[in-house]
Each structure stands twice: as C-alpha cells, then as structure tokens.
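Title: Prediction job returns without error message
Component: structure pipeline
Severity: low
Priority: P3
Assignee: unassigned

Description:
Job completed but the reporter wants confirmation the result is attached to the right record. Sequence as submitted:
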Amino acid sequence: MPGRIYNQLTFLERGTIEKLILQKESISSIGRILNRAPSTIKREIMRNGTDSPKTMFCVETRNICIHRNSCNRLDLCNKGCLTSCCKCDSWLCNSLCPDFETQPCPLHIRPPYCCNGCSEIYGYGCSHPYWFYEAKAAHEKAEQRKIVARLGIDCTPEELEETIAIVKAGVKNGQSIRHIFANNEGKLCCGWRTFYNWVDQGLIEGIANIDLSRKVRYKQRKKKDGSKRGIPREALIGRTYDDFENLTEQEKLSAVEVDTVVGRRGVDKQVILTLLFKRSRFQLMLLIDEKTVDDVIDAIDLIDSLCEGRFSEVFPVIILDRGSEFADPWRIECRKNGTQRTRVYYCDPQHSQQKPKAEKNHEEIRKVLPKGKSNFGALKKPDMAVLMSHVNSYGREILNWAAPYDIAQFMLPKTLLDGLSIARIPANDIVLKPHLLPHAILKK
C-alpha cells in the first residue's frame, strides 16, 4: 500500500468526502479510500463545515434557543406585537434576543461530525445549530484561510525599519526602487516588488507613489470585474467538452443546450435564458432579472418544480458555454436537498459551434427582438409565453416541416408546457416580426 498523502486536500477529494458521508461510510473508511489519515478527515469536516449550505436541504425558520419553552419576552422587534417572541413565525428572536443561547448537537462530537444524512433535519428541523459538510463551501473556506494567513508584513519591526531607512535615503537622491534593491542585496527584508506593493497600499510612512518618479508616469491597470469571472477551474473537472464527447450517442442527442440572449449592453438588465432540446428543436425561454448565477439557478429550480419529478428524464445532460452566469455547476446539477437531477458539461472557450442548435434558434428570437433595437427592460414574463408559442409553432425543414411544439408535447411533461403557458399557434397565424411584442421595440 502506498504511503499516505500529506499535502493539502484538493477540491476533488473534498467532493469525495461529501459523497462518502452521505453513503454512511465511516471516517476510517473515507481515510482509506483517499489514502489519508482519519484525523485529517475529521479535522477537515470540523474546520471547513458550514452552518448555511447552498446545495442541501435545511429548515431556516426554526427556533433553536434553549430557553424557547420558558421564554416570556415580548416585542423584541419593536412592532407592538403582544405575542410571545418565541412563538413568532418569523423566528426573529434568535437574532434579536440578548439571552439567545444554543445547545450544540451531541452528534457533532462523534462521527460523522456533521448533519449530512441526518434524518432530524427534515420536518421542522432539529433544535440544534446546523453543521453541514459541503465540498464547494469547504474548499472556498480553506482557500480563504490560506489568503488570510499570507496577509501582513513578514519581518521584525527592526528589519522593516532598517529597510525603510535605506530605501528613503535612496529615493531622496532620485534612485529607483529597483536600483536600491539591486545594490543593497542581503540588507533588505523583502523583494522590490513587495516593497512597491507596500508603498501602493500606503503601509510605508514617509514614502508614497508620488515620490517614485517612474511610477507616477504610468496609468494604473484596470482590474477585471470579479463578479464576471469565468468558470472556476475545479468546476471543469469531469465537465469539459472532451468529457461530453466521451458520452454515448444517445446521451449526446438527449443533451439540452442552454444559453442566454441579452439586450443592450450596459442598459438592459433582464436576460432571456434559453434551453433547447436538440431532437425536437423545441426551445424554452425564461425571463430572468439579471445575468447572474442565482437567477439562472432560480429559473432551473422553477422548471424542475414544473416537471414534477421528471426533470432528470427530460434534462439528463445540459451543455453550457463558459459565461459567468453558469459558474456554479453544483447547484445546477443538484437540488437544494442534495439529490442529483442532471449532469453539466461546458463548451470550450470561443467555440459556440459546440452548441450550434441553440445559437441557430436564437435567429428566430431576434426576428421578434432585433439586436440593438429592443428594450429588454420592457419585457414581462407573459411575453415569453407568447414568444415561445410562436417560435415553437414555426415549422422546420429538418423536421419535415413539423413544428417543434408537435414533437415536444409527446416528449415533455404537460405540466411544464401548461406551467409556462406555451400553446400551439395555427401555421397561418404565426408572427415572427417585431410587432409581435411592440412594447419591447425601441422607437426611432
């Protein structure tokens, strides 16, 4: 048996820990599978767990104060309420009461050290604080701890003072930071890049950017908007287009191509989320408030509820581009209670031809909502029902001039079609012109 691994846990290993806990594997068994010490697994669960999981079911509206049965406090929220606060449906007393106190769950001090798989969390929830182990949250927590550990200046006050004195003397004589560090090697407590950063952050008293003649000549580089980052590297593990290509032909044909249609950049916040079924060319269109992960998840959760248990059958595989709105595959793949509902794969960057049918079908949408001439802010959710009905009733040559709706009604749950108010439009009444939704067209 190979020796145990002693380096830091990876995101993939944390995902394995989460799955094995749900499968009721012991801590020792998880350690053997990952070739890690059981104490490492125990510390990981206890240090990197979370009390507010995003992908697991938990009851938020519950009173966990140990004084709840004997408490007589009134009107903690200052709304003039005469009902005892411990009986309030909003359970605000847990966050407002100065006497709030909880009792730790006895199950958290023995394996599996968390609430994963515990039956007590269902119904009204247990009366103890939650502690879940969730791979994504655990990985983010561990990474953040590493960042915090590296903050600050790593030297003694005397070494820092000596370094600042040497640099100040050089800067006073018009020398650059690079020159000073090159000629005082071994005397300074850091590198020249680090010292530049300290000056930029205002940590060095007596030296500012204005004192550095070359630095003030250059414009500061713009930082990318962190909210519009691409797909996290760990999210791509097992979800690349090459992984998609390794699926069976049947699975690839069953894939649903998901994309977004946007309005005027920087003006319209509302976006149309589209989901196209490759076989039937039938396309769902949902209006979401913004092009964000949370809005996309809410839309998929809505579709899941309308499918009434058939989501995994209807959406076995989903293929996406690498837009920031699709950056959380775990919440797309799994419901809030942790059960898997689909599998997600990503196209390669700048390869829209890898989901061509969704891109092609957007042409029909643009006939009604021309690019640059449409006000997406004026769209309402009932408009999507009208747009879907007309676009999906339009015959396709590849379907021998059958309409996508005619095929979809035999493949998709009736509750989904009815829930989104999609109807069959007679062929001669179909309108694919801007006057279908005139209120969303900009006036010249």
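Comment from assignee: result matches the submitted record. The chain has 17 helices and five strands.
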